[in-house]
Amino acid sequence: MSQEDLDIDLDAIERRMDGAMTALRTEFGSLRTGRASASILEPIQVDAYGQMTPINQLGTVNVPEPRMVVINVWDKAMISKVERAIRDSGIGINPVVDGPLIRLPIPELNEERRTQLTKVAAQYAEQARVAIRNVRRDGMDQIKKAKAAGMSEDDQKMWSDEVQTLTDKAIAVVDRALEAKQAEIMHV
After folding, report:
1. In this structure, which of 16, 39, 69, 178 has its CB flanked by the most CB atoms within 10 Å?
2. Helices 111-148 & 153-186, crossing angle to 10 degrees?
3. What backbone torsions phi and psi does residue 91 show, to the nearest 5 degrees?
4. Spatial distance between the Cα atoms of 183 and 130, rounded to a whole number of angstroms
5. Residue ranges of the Ribosome recycling factor domain (predicted)?
6. H/E element holding 69?
7. Rg (CA), the chain
C-alpha cells in the first residue's frame, strides 16, 4: 500500500463533525424562546403537490413584530395544508388564517414550558454528541484499517490523538451551544 492509503482524511472527519453542529444549530433555531423567528418553521414540512415541501418554499415568511410570524402563502389551495402542518408539528402555536395570510402569534412562555424546552435542547445536543462520536468511531476504524495495512504504532497513536482532539473540540462546541441556548430559553 502507498503512504497515501495510510493517511487519514482529517478534513473529512472535521467536515462531518461540523455537519452535526450545523444540524444542531438548525434544531436550536426551531426552539421557541418567546420571540418570533422565521426559523421556528424550518423543520416543518407540508405535503404539497405530492411531496414534502418546506413552508418557506410555499410562501413568504415574515416577522413583522416581536411576537408574530406571518406566512403569505402563494397558492391559495395550500393554505389549509400549511395551517394543518403547523398545528400538527407540535411547536405549540395556533395559526390564524386571514385570507392568504397565516398569522402565528407567539405566546409568552411560562416557566413549565421553558423547562420543557431546555430538556428538548438537551436532547438535541445529545443527538449531536452521538453523531460526533459516530464520526470519531469511523475515524478510529480508518486508523485500524491503516494499521493492518502497515501503519506504524507511532503514526497510529498520532492519528488517534488527532481524531480525539477534533472530537473533544466538537463536543465542547456542542456543550457551549447548549448552555447558551438554555440560558436564552430561561431568560424572561
Report:
1. 69
2. 170
3. -80, -5
4. 23
5. 24-186
6. strand 68-73
7. 22
Q: For residue 104, which phi and psi values (nearest 5 degrees)?
A: -120, 95
> For residue 159, what are the CA distances in angstroms to 76, 86, 164, 167?
57, 47, 9, 12
Q: How many CB atoms lie under 10 A from the CB of residue 10?
A: 14
pLDDT by residue for the chain (188 residues), tens digit each?
Answer: 344 445 788 899 999 999 999 989 888 877 766 667 777 788 789 998 889 999 989 999 999 888 899 999 999 999 999 999 988 887 778 899 998 899 998 877 788 878 888 888 999 999 999 999 999 999 999 999 988 888 899 999 999 999 999 999 999 999 999 999 998 888 76
C-beta of residue 179 within 8 angstroms of C-beta of residue 151: no
Q: Is the dihedral angle over the CA atoms 90, 176, 170, 37 positive or is it negative? A: positive
